[in-house]
Batch of 3 targets.
Target 1
Amino acid sequence: MILRTKFPLAVMLFFAIGLLTAYACTSKPMAISANTPETQATPTPATPARLTAEDLKKLRWIEGTWRGTGVSQPAFFERYRWENDTTLAVDSFENEKLEKVTDTTRFELKDGEFGGGSEGARYVATAVDDNAITFAPVVKARNWFVWKRESKDSWTAIIKPLAKPDKPAKDIIYNMERLPDAR
């Protein structure tokens, strides 16, 4: 009699563990909040911030010519310029002489969303205030990023790569220092 009651319990326990294992292997990963630059292997789609041209005035601090530096990164040079009230152009230069533009990326406000990118990748702003803007990946992008004002003449670009199941993501930080505008 003891064997009879323990045996069915063991079978039921084995069956329950099997079902839980099967469910865990097929269930989708937990979603993250789309407005934070946290990472996971398969992020949920970004929730764009609803912005106006008035909101973009908060980003006027980024206008200018900048020298970027980072760990294991040679210096690079960029100019951020407003083409109009709703379009921010970012020119990348070949070197510190600022003579040759090698790439221009545009971030545009369309239908209340501020976004842009290059080489097929697209990002959208998910949060903006007087000192920072956060961009999330939308298409063919592998990271989130934040532009954060530190002072009148410096800001930080924080790149937050998407995590991979076998490799945790580590932030990449670039320090941007204002150069005298040599237009």
Note: The longest strand covers residues 73-84.
Target 2
Amino acid sequence: MVLGGVCVSGSLLAQQQMRRPQNRPAFYSEKFSAGVHVGLNLPGFDVRPAARGMRPDSIIGISAIDGSGLHISIQSELRLSRLLTLRFDPGYLLGERAVLFDVAGKRGNYSLMQATESDLIRFPLALRLRSKRYGNFASYMLTGFEYSLDVAGNERKLQQSYPGQPMLRMKKNNYSLQAGSGLDFFLPYFKFGLEVRFIYGLRNILVPDGSPFADAVGSLRSRMLLFSFTFEG
């Protein structure tokens, strides 16, 4: 729905841009461009419980809680054709997300939350297909692949020994697919853009360390929604 809204907004803005004089008319002819992205992100998990016979009887439910964070990246883009480009925008992302465990206790049910900070160094590579330019406006779609390294990951840390305290250990390395769309506005001295991108992890990042909480989880994959402001020279 978000991606569709961006495309609809783009068509309306395009009609208003048709008769305006063009800023930076040679931009689509430049072989290489560079810029910066800054924005907000909504990180979360796609968590799948283990089969009933495989997980502890005391854990009766598992759910993911989305968080929020910030990100910044440096963009470099190579033009493959007039409307198709290859984009590489490595960057840094800071966010927080959590997994909630519903536990059946002797005195009643209760919940325990495992909050996880993510400090990701990201290496996304994507193909971007632009629309034709309408005055000082254009829209685009992109799809690609991403490798990320969680420098705050706890993959090698020992399990906590506090009774009743969940600690999910997660792998540092992850691989993801991404898809998104955006709007470009050509200003006199630079190009400003708005972008939304969805990222879904391909790898089960849970470390199966034999703890009760890890045994309750069948798979744990990352998912994330990014909202970015882009500035290209």
Note: The first helix runs from residue 2 to 17.
Target 3
Amino acid sequence: TGLSVVLVPLLGHTAGLRAPWPTWVGAGCAAGGLALLVLGSREPLGPTGLGDLLTLGCAVAFAVYLLLLDRYAKQNSVRAMLAPQLATVAVLSWVGTLVWEQPQFVLPTQAWVAVLITGALASTVAFGLLSWVEQRTTAAYTAIVLTMEPVFAGVLGWLVLGETLVNWQIVGAITIVAGMSVPHVRRLTTPSSSLPTQPPMPGGSGPASS
């Protein structure tokens, strides 16, 4: 699903949302780093199957979601948008469960704890923060930041489970961090032009205009 980091600026470009060149460079670095994280392990990947195609479709859907969120988050409050999103996913997931699975309510305690953690932290808190962030930045940069997820997973896997990353995977993690930093480098090196060139006129709200 990390392919959405490339799909967001591409789809946004077709929709008329022109991203600046540092965003494209950052997206390319993040995508390349993600490829190194996935392909740089010691274990070979299996053959492409239906699950891989569904995951690719998920990446497309998530890219479209980020673009729509970029459009509507700036016009609405986070609270107003969060509940309908979670309710929609809950209803669609319930329908999918009835069609393709056999619902079971008698679950072990550990499973219910996982459900609560997933619903509270991974869904409610995470997507609430995502909506809050997209009120203040662009969808393309949000997609770049989200590629840090496998980096955090690798670090926690090392700290908690004793897992290790091979050389190319470490390079991939560094490349993702670099890609996330590229758009900020341009902002830091671009002179600010927000200061007024002349004081406002008495009784007015800004510089005099001809």
Note: Residues 109-134 form the longest helix (26 residues).
